[in-house]
User: What shape does this take?
Amino acid sequence: MYRLRDLFNSTINLVILLLIAVVTVLVVGGQTLVSSEDKTTVQASAEKEVGVFQSPLQPSPTPPTPIDVEKVKIEKVETVSPASFITDSWIWSPNGKNALVNKNVKGHLLHELSKEGQMLTQRWIGVYDLWILNLESNKEELITESATSWYWSPDGTSIAYIAPVAEEGMDGVLYIFNLSDKTPYQIAEVNLVQGFDQPIWLPTNEIIYIADAQIWIIQPDGKGMRQLNTLHLLEEGWSTYPGLAFYNGNISQFTISPDSKSIAYTMLSKTPGAEASEIATQQSVWVANLDGQNSQQLANNALNPSWSPDSEKLIYYANAAPSDSQSTALNLMVANLKTGEQYLVYKAPNSFSEPGNPVWSPGSDTVAFIEQPTNDLWFAKIDGSAQKQIPVAPEIGVQMLSSSMRWSSMVWSPDGTYLLVGQASNGPGVFYRLNLSTSN
Assistant: This one.
């Protein structure tokens, strides 16, 4: 969701035909309840050998160099080749040598609401082909032609991905693809629901997925399936589509810490004094143990927390003017969970600005983001003590020709020496490698 202001608006009903949105944080959708008995049946199909987990991701022998925000600059710009990838997604392998990428996307119908034979509204997601791209040789390898979302194993030897089970509908399956035998194995039935990240492969060698409006966890061999906590998920279409009726909870987003010990999430509640019939619209950021215990509220009028690589900090959005119903501006905040301190790292200059696509530096000392609507690249120290604004388009030599052409995504290299930014125009776009320097 590139325009994050939409998260403060009321529920969106998509009329006639919902256009497929290619999204930075990949969105997925869901439907029918999956019973424990059904899950057991799927688990039995995963008894095949899918590869033995060898070791967790090892830290880099050379820690990333801290970013000097005041001196950082774009030293060199390179076009990443080949340039036929969809630029809203780019997921590094643990060793930083490969990436999961996509070339094509097609629509998958999740829901349709009709009355007296006339279609009123539909809900769609994107289904992608999934490739491994070697960043040194540009060699490509096709993993599957049908996936809604995906994740690397901690040791980089396998990939977890989710795919629909039929041409339409909200039932999905979680697969494990072992790179050694090139065979996908089905391990769990999932719900495809918009707005949540799944799967998530934890350093504990367990995989997070969503079913029955709850968060579940499973081992890559299909064993150890259990409900992770009691958080009840909210999908914004629950009141419109009968198949989503059970997604009427109060958790609209969640994220797992890199050390697998904590969960942060966005909770919706009713504003003080609201009528009983009013829907919950007030958003707040919470953090808890992975099992949901010891929950603490970090901020009100806030949303979309994201963990730092060291699992000690959270970055999140805060409504810049919560008392102004017309304002859609968002500030960017950092909470240091170790010290309890919170910092303002970006203050929206007007009622329509927002810090899109924030990414953490590998050393957890800096965040980078693309400001909207200027499309400028910003760097900020996590304590708010320094910021730097760089006009990206002039640096690259590309002008924004229309509102459909935008910087669609950004990722930081594992060693912290460059950023990849994607420019899209309603389809496959171009990735640029921005080599960074902090020398005078």
About this structure: The chain has one domain: 4-46+68-272+279-437. The first strand starts at residue 73 and ends at 79. The two ends are 36 Å apart (CA to CA). The first helix runs from residue 36 to 44.
